[in-house]
Structures are given as structure tokens and as C-alpha cells.
Predict the structure of NAD-dependent aldehyde dehydrogenase.
Amino acid sequence: MAYQTTNPYTNEVVKTYEDATPEYVEESLAKAQKLYLKWRNDPVSSRIPVLHKLAQIFRDETDSLAKVLTVDMGKLIGEAKGEVILCAMIADYYADHAEELLKPRAIESIAGEAQLENHPLGVMMAVEPWNFPYYQMMRIFAPNFAVGDPIVYKHAAITPASALAFEDAVRRAGAPEGALTNLFLSYDQVSDVVADKRVQGVALTGSERGGVAVAKVAGEHLKKTTMELGGVDAFIVAHDANMTDVKNIAPRARLYNAGQVCTSSKRFIVTENNYDEFLASLKAAFSSVKMGDPMDPSTTLAPMNSKRAKEKLQAQVDEAIAGGATAYYVHEPIDDDGQFFMPTILTNITKDNPAYGKEMFGPVAQVYKVKDDDAAIALANDADYGLGGIVFAGSAEYGAELASRIETGMVFVNTFFSSLPELEFGGVKKSGFGRELGQSGIFSFVNQELVVKRDHPNEDETGGLVLAHKF
Ligand code: NAP
């Protein structure tokens, strides 16, 4: 396994890193376990200042932290800065809310004075992707640090500098040794760590392929998991949608982060009365992008993360066309060696086309024409995935009605899809299970320990009968 930064704009190999040695892995797990044993007895409040400090570091060092992302995986520098700021917001959110969220919950019960206490679960293993290298880490780190779960993590092989920069920021924020440890692991080593009896939880964000592999090992060892996987999110243009808003949002919903977002709109499902107007506007937007140096703030479309990803997407587009799809629009080639993928619009994708229902992770829009809103919902639901979605409709209320009929984890009505600290993030079907962020996100790796107390055994009629056999 080669952990390596190859700048996708210049194709320069910036740095290669060695895999973690077995000794370092063992040492890291031992430190994490030792910290867990300590943290079990420490109050949540003892960890809060570190999260606020971490947020401050992300705010103070936005520019330098953002550059690491852009060199590692090519995203536009403006989008990289946005990611850094979002990380600060997530750290602050859990710093502000963790104590309240994690306080014991009293339960009224005939058994006695009952309460549900939230304790750390233990050491966690996180496996994270390259498309938002800091944000994905912060989604896991901030809530679970507040809970008291130490984390070891394997980041994507192509974003090692981002992995190290995140670890370094956490250390500088004052987190104790063992709180968060980056490990450059091979897949086999990931399996070994997941199997290790000190590890109690496994969180993976990535593709269905990666999710299946890691969830399988976790399942064999009965480890709790969350899986945040891919999607083929629908962008529904209902019959009465405001087309000015649609035209403004649709291109961004596909091209943001060079189309490499799990919740990018990948299937535009457009009612027939709006179809021609929609296609023309999407084509105009796709043809006006400015590809170039992602460090240049005037660039509007970044290169893809790697040569491999570009080749995979090209193969998918070729296969779709060979299967009968129409390449309604392909951006004219540009004279640049960076890993740019020409924005492409595919239409006439039939159910038997290999591209139907497949995630295309880059600047390629699939556009479908449907006769009405019911047909749009039916097509949106005809997918193995269910992560996010966008609906544009004549009113927020009608849009929300349509949204509720989509089998998916998250939907935004009449607006851009955004991830924010307070909003639960996660999917259904092959998009995975569990939630990150928001209030739910903090409970994924918590031991919700029930404690029932009273001064003497419960011998009243109901309690004795229901709760315990009398011998
Ligand atoms: P990926 O190939 O599954 O990689 C994600 C992480 O899993 C990487 O660290 C990868 O390591 C690791 N991995 C993959 N196979 C593994 C195995 N057999 N054993 C151990 N580790 C393994 O995903 P990707 O293509 O990089 O990321 C893009 C995908 O992530 C898309 O499908 C996207 O939709 C999804 N995603 C989902 C969310 C969400 O929140 N739902 C967010 C972002 C992205 P290597 O890099 O070393 O291969």
C-alpha cells in the first residue's frame, strides 16, 4: 500500500510515506486503550476545551490547512477553505452541546429510580475517504472525542498529508496522547485492527466496495459499525418548480468538488414540461466552467482527485454510451495535463443501461425526462442507494411532500444540499447505516448504560411478578 501525495493538477509526486509498522500499530492501540480506561472516569467537560481550541486552530490556519487539501486531492482552494471552516463549526458545535446531549436521561419506571447513562464505548477505528479529508475526520473525531472514545484511523492512500495535518492540529489543540492516531495501514492491517479486542467501534466513510469489506470483518468480530457510503442522489424538478432557482442550483449540485461528493446530485429527474429548458441551461453552465489551477481563485472546476479516478469515470461514460445513452453535451477538450474530466451530460439512459443506478463520481450529469411528479418519485426510488436528494417544487410545502416520499436519508427542498454540524447525515439501503453529525451523531459509539437503583428490592406485587422469578 503506497501512501502518496500526487498533486492532481501538476501530476508531481509530492511525497511518499511508509506503512505503519506492527510495533507502531500495537503501541498506538495500547495508548488508545489506556486513555479509554482513564476517560471512563473523566467528565465530558474535561474534554470540551480541546474542541474549542481545535476550532480556533482551524479558523486561524484556514489558508495553510486548505492548501494541504488542494495539493493532496486537487479541490478548489475556495472550496478547501470552506471545508476547513466547516470543521471549525463542527468542533464548536460538539464543544457547545456535548455535555447537554450526554447527560443521563431519567426514566420513569416501576423498577426503581432508573437512568440511562452515556459512557464511552472504547477505542474506535475510523476509515475515511479523500473527497473531504478534514471534514470526514471531524465528523468522527469531534463527537467521539467528547464522548471519550479514543480513535485510530486509516485515511485514504492519496491524502496522507491531510491525514497528518489533521492529527497534528488535534495534538496542538491539547488532546492527550492516544486520543487520535493516524495509521498508514494496508487493508490487511485494517482487518487486524478491526479484529483487535480493544477496538469496540468501526466507522467507515467511502464506497460500497470499501464498506462491504470492512463491515464484513467488523461483523465477524461483532464490532459496532456506522457505514457512510455512496449514492445516486436524485435532483427532482417538479412540474411547478421555479426554473430560475433550478438553473442556479443544478450545475453547482453536480460540479461542486469536481462532482466528487457522496451527496452530489447524480440523477436529474425532470418533468417533461421543464425538460428542454433544463437541459439547455445545464449545458450552458457546463460549457462555461473554467478549468485550471485549483490554487487560482478564479478557477471554477478542479481536476479530479487522481488519474485512476478519471479513468474509471471515463470507462463508465464510455460504457453508458455503448449501452445506448446519448452524450447530449461533452465539454471541448482543454490543453492541460491535470486530471481534468470534461463536464458531460448524458440523456436517454434506459433501465438496461450499465449506467442506470450507478454512482458516477465526477462531473457527469445523468438527466432523465419523466411525465409527472409521481413518475419522478418512482424513478428516484428505483435505486439501490438512498443517501441524499434535492427537490425543486412550486412551494416548500409541496416540495416537502414529495421529499417525504423518497426512500433516502436526507432531502433538501428548493435549495442547495448542505452539510452542517446540527444536521444529521447518513443514508439508507446501500448508502449505509448509522448517522453522523447532529444530535444522533454523538450516540453512535456510546454505551447507553441503564442503571436502576432503589434502597431495597422491589417486592411489590407488580414489580415482583414482572421483573424477576421468585425461587
Ligand atoms: P473507498 O475506495 O471505499 O475508500 C474509502 C476508504 O476506505 C479509504 O481510506 C480506503 O483506503 C478504504 N478502503 C477501501 N477498501 C478497503 C478495504 N478492503 N479494507 C480496508 N480499507 C479499505 O471510497 P473512495 O472511492 O475513496 O471514496 C468515494 C466514495 O465514498 C464514494 O462512493 C462516495 O459516495 C463515498 N462517500 C460517502 C460519504 C457519506 O458520508 N455517505 C461521504 C464521502 C464519500 P485506500 O484509499 O487505501 O483505498
About this structure: The chain has two domains: 3-229+431-450, 234-413. Residues 1, 127-131, 154-157, 187, 190, 205-207, 209-210, 213-214, 228-231, 262, 359, 361, 387, 427, 432 surround NAP (CB under 6 Å). The domain at 234-413 is CATH 3.40.309.10 (Aldehyde Dehydrogenase; Chain A, domain 2).
